[in-house]
């Protein structure tokens, strides 16, 4: 079976990037797109996803999201002294438990996200080493992505006589005879992959090994994954310049309980890699929110603390329950109204278009949305496009298409050179046209 993330990359060399600003990581008319994570069944497959300081957030969150959607009981365990962990691009995720509480548990799968120094933090955790080595010895599934195969598994001796791949920046550390440059490699119970841009392939391969091909195909369709023969990418109308001067673009991303975590984290990660100043603001009473598939993310700030601020760009994430919460925020409504009046940029993904529609911010605009709500759009000429730009409005179908969405923003704000550099770091093949 071949499940393809849009444009998986074969770049030969690149560097991983980390970013400065720290983000501390569930409209009524529309059908539910992301049902909340249900209580695990008694015999649900058990999956361990460890995280540490500098873990790549896209890789961790996509793994968690996809495997929970597939029906796995995913435990997110911190290898740090505290449950709250700052990831590579500054997103702060909150683990379910400490890794020490997992030492006596048996897992059907242990999946290691990459990132630096996250992969080194995982490597230096003796409890995790013992869990993963036992996993391999007892012929249960284990996997690693990005830097983790070379930085974490190799020193543990878990790559012997196995074909493996990893992030291009670490490829020279792998045993030459066994190293391959494929985006995904399955070898004797070990699955490896290359980077954030191949995370969906990695997670879906693991889902297929746990639950079968039909489940993996269903999840791929739900996530709006694209096949290699799908040419629908980006459409732009009323083309204008988005440059914001000599300062780093200021981007506001409001979140709530039920926001779609893969959308939030992907947009934040990619825009921070491009050196935008991204602020994640909670519309809840607390900074910590529980996203649609149970991932706990801590925002940088409360929405009330940015109500007098001007931002170059405001982006609304999807997630049905999250959109309902965002739509009730008076401060966010005020900010969006001011954004439009001042001629600044704004955007929405998935079902969050409902908020813009309700405020009249889609009038005479072309847009795209999740297929389940696209019939709400007045102009159907853009149906099926991953990303649509109309003047200073940008929209996306959501979920897996948000990588294209975030890279489209990078291109508009920073140009072709920056977007290709960011895409290369992600191991994501940016379209040539």
Automatic annotation (TrEMBL):
It comes from Clitoria ternatea (Butterfly pea). Keywords: Repeat. The keyword Methyltransferase does not apply. Belongs to the peptidase C56 family. Residues 45-209, 250-411 form the DJ-1/PfpI domain. Pfam families: DJ-1_PfpI (PF01965). GO terms for cellular component: cytoplasm. CDD domains: GATase1_DJ-1. This is DJ-1/PfpI domain-containing protein. The lineage of its organism: Eukaryota, Viridiplantae, Streptophyta, Embryophyta, Tracheophyta. InterPro entries: Class_I_gatase-like (IPR029062), DJ-1 (IPR006287), DJ-1/PfpI (IPR002818), Prot/Nucl_acid_deglycase (IPR050325).
